[in-house]
């Protein structure tokens, strides 16, 4: 059972890092959007490709139900990611530590 515990702890660590890195990618995309980036820049294309699948549905619902002049979808996505991170990481760690 110790191998399963160590596997879960390793996966939890990777998940924690992945969520943190994705939060920073969303922040960088939001900051870059303030300065009229070149859409043909590979970095801008990468940021757009990796964040748009999660931002688009959030943006759709925000514009549909709360028509505001600002795009608040990055902030909502970051809040959701932090919520997932703060719930799933401790829960999975507790699960792993209870395995004997």
Describe the secondary-structure layout.
Layout: H1 2-32, H2 42-65, H3 73-98
Helix pairs in contact: 1-2, 1-3, 2-3
What does this structure look like?
The model has no long low-confidence stretch (mean pLDDT 93). Helix 1 packs across helix 2 and helix 1 packs antiparallel against helix 3 (73-98). The chain has one domain (2-98). It is an all-alpha fold. It is 81% helix and 0% strand.
Choose one word for the global shape.
elongated
- What are the secondary-structure elements, in order, as H or E? HHH
Question: Beta fraction of the residues?
Answer: under 5%
Strand tally is 0
- Our count of helices gives 3
Helix content: over 70%
Give unreliable regions as ranges. none
Q: What distance separates the N and C termini? A: 6 Å
Structural class: mainly alpha
Average pLDDT works out at 93
Cα-atom radius of gyration: 17 Å
